[in-house]
Amino acid sequence: MDEQLKTAYKLAIQDPCANLDKLSHLTPVLAEDGEPYCIDGSKCVVFKMQDPESGKYYALKCFAEIPDSSEKLRYKLIADELVMVDSPYFVHMRFIEDEIQAEISYPEDRLPVLLMDWVDGETLVEYLAANYQYTFTMSILCYRFCKMAAWLHIQDFAHGDITPSHIMVRPDGTLTLIGYDGMFIPSMKGSLSSALLSSEFCHPKRKIDEFDEHIDDFSLISIALSLKAISLDPSLFDSYGSPEQLLFTKEDYCKPEQSKVIASLQQLMYDKEFCSLYSFFMLALVNGNLSLGSLKLFACENPRKLQVDVPELEQKHRSTSRPKVRYSDDGRKFFGCNYMRCRHYVINEGVRIICDKAFYGWDNLESIEIPSSVEVIGDFEFWRCRVLDKVIIPESVTTLIGNPFHGWNGKLECLSPNFIYEDDVLFNKDKSEIISFRNQEMDSYIIPESVTHIRKYAFYGAKHLAKLFIPDSVVTIGTHAFCGCESLTHLVIPSSVKSIGDGAFYGCSSLDSIFIPNGLINIGKYAFDRCHFPQKIREQLTARFGKIILG
Q1: DSSP state of 298
Q2: Is the pTM of this model over 0.90?
Q3: Which InterPro entries match (predicted)?
Q4: Mean pLDDT score across all residues of the chain
Q5: Which of 115, 228, 261, 541 lies 20 to 30 Å (CA to CA) from residue 467?
């Protein structure tokens, strides 16, 4: 944006009561230099504003070029459509005419603005620049992007300009799209696109009259494939990419047979998810969109469900601060050492991932300090740490793999905003998952209706739990989720449950009454092994599922 125009807007914003109309109650948020905080674009400037009464923050977009009548109508239609969209991937928007008075050479007394909810975080451009070398972080990013892509793929509208600069990564890692100028909505059917994407994310043969719900398809699969490839091999980003373009250029799309980056991707064909994304990328390259595909094409497994195990190669690395305790050479992973005889341990600053079983069997460990650099804590962490009194989950932790705390009975304290710890039960941020049930003395428990998933080993060893209520919201019960709940006598599994993991109720020796719904899709091996059911119930279960679930 022209500096003179930007300065005029800044001066106007500093006195909202005089220069704003309907939004005069908003106040500008100031930057460190005392000037209104703003983000400068080529065609606009966006100011951060706050409603003093509610405390809510907004983005106020001021235009470099005043929209004509057709553009104004487009903004109003998009704003009306977004009101109906209930998704974290989009924010609501208002187009307000005759709103701001600024000392600039336009005939209008007051100029139009766009008002949107403010999105905290950083653009994907900034996020990639800082994190592309961290494979687990990139795997989480790819998974979240693919979830968003699958959701957007089945909508009857399209964003129209999905690029790294229009994808915000919030502090909790979730994604939100911004920049809605090029959106397609059903009421625009038959009209022309307002603009084409940059060449790095636009199909090379797309024309301006191609404007429908599929205009995002190519950019979605191109970005998804790029993120997956970078998560598997960050060196590809060093060799071919940049935060603005990711891996591909227009030349790669036009002549894939001559593309060095596409040729380099062949080394990643060992990964099943990569192969699926690659196949659909080539389909989109040929057809121009993914109208022949389904939302399943973006299916990626949640990396949180994967073990943060010690790769065989990295087990040989011994860049350590203490004998027998292993760190990765870059200092970002802590591998630990089984059965270490140590009373107090401080993990090195700079560690981002504590790998699975890092403290497994540290029988003498009494205290541990986890630095604020840690983002991921692996599964099976504190098994057999019999004298460890307390573990504090730092504020920096975003991911817990499985249930790191099963088999350990000490005191847990959670400082991370990414989890909720109440009544000795650890949940994820939105309470949709039970991670760890910590009260070993409780004899009855009602699972909250917000819960959809019960993680593996979540209730492991809750020996006094005799009564349990599972609500209709629960969809999956993880591996060994209730293993060893030997006082549990009666169990009703609601019809919402579609999957029960291996050994889920292994060793629930007091179970004498059980109801399992007909709609169950998957039930794991030995799910009810060591459960002493009456003969009639055993016969019924065997008839439905075979002896394998009873052992």
Answers
A1: G
A2: no
A3: Kinase-like_dom_sf, LRR_5, LRR_dom_sf, Surface_bspA-like
A4: 86
A5: 541
Q: Which CATH architecture has domain 302-417?
A: Alpha-Beta Horseshoe (3.80)
- 541, 529 contact by CB (below 8 A): no
Contacts for 250 with CB less than 8 Å, ≥ 6 apart: 199, 200, 202, 204
Q: Which amino acid is at 239?
A: S
**How do residues 333-354 score in pLDDT, each as one tens digit?**
898 876 677 889 999 999 989 9
Q: Do residues 19 and 100 lie in contact, with contact meaning Cβ atoms separated by under 8 Å?
A: yes
Name the CATH code of domain 122-294 (choices 2.60.40, 3.50.30, 2.40.160, 1.10.510).
1.10.510
Task: Give the HSE-up count for residue 284: Cα atoms under 13 Å, Cβ half-sphere.
Answer: 30
Q: Please state the length of the chain.
A: 551
Helix ranges (H only) for 154-257 are: 217-232, 235-240, 250-254
- Cβ neighbours of residue 23 closer than 8 Å, sequence gap 6 or more: 16, 49, 60, 96, 99, 113, 115
Q: What CATH number is given for 3-117 in this structure?
A: 3.30.200.20
pLDDT tens digits, residue range 65-88?
Answer: 888 888 999 999 999 999 989 899
Residue 89 contacts residue 177 (beta carbons within 8 Å): yes
* pLDDT score for 323: 43
Residue 200: pLDDT band with limits 50, 70, 90:
confident
58 - beta bridge partners?
49, 117
pLDDT digits (tens, 9 = 90+) for 151-199: 998 899 999 899 999 999 998 889 999 999 889 999 998 887 766 555 6
Beta bridge partners of 96: 113
pLDDT tier for residue 290 given thresholds of 50, 70 and 90: low
Residue ranges per structural domain of the chain: 3-117, 122-294, 302-417, 430-551
